[in-house]
Amino acid sequence: MTVPVSLDDVRAALVLDGFDPLEAQRRMAPQPRVLRRPQNRPGQPHRASVIVLLYPGDDGLAFPLIRRAEHPGDVHSGQIGLPGGAQEPGETPLETALREAREELGVEAAVQIIGRLAPLYIPPSDFEVTPFVGTLAGRPRWQPQADEVVEVLEFPLGGLLDEARKHVEDWPFEGYSLRVPWYDVQGYRVWGATAIMLSELEWRLRHVLNGRR
Question: Is 173 helix (H, G, I), strand (E, B) or coil?
Fold first, then answer.
């Protein structure tokens, strides 16, 4: 069941007082997993940005996820994720998110940024990712970047609140068992960093919607 969510709900969710994003992130984080960069790790993390790009879909607000192309040596290749990528020299995090939306999805329409989620650290690639939330006035016509994006998956925002879409499995990983929560999006497993960021948005929305009951 898709729960109706309005833009006003999203705006309110992104500015909640006293909300703990780390607790919300942990709900969909593989266990064990580090959510913050260890203080003893040398150097500085790489920087990246992603965007939850909201637009009017068939069942209310929706946003795109992308299935990435397979690239040898890329730890994130083939996974389902939000549009985004590494920050280039001279860019702000927001400029990175908007550039990646244009490059990966062909989004040329004006994007209104309404907020951001908490930064997230990705241990395998040593990246710190800044997630933004933006809106488009109309439903876009996707023009995916052929060498980077295999498929664009449209997902209703209210689907994050549907418990039937959430699952947990034990996966073998480097000699031990990893407990992995994931969202079902059109039959694909959305897990890891993407699920963690979406979990924060989910629980922000739950706080707002539950407060109105």
Answer: strand
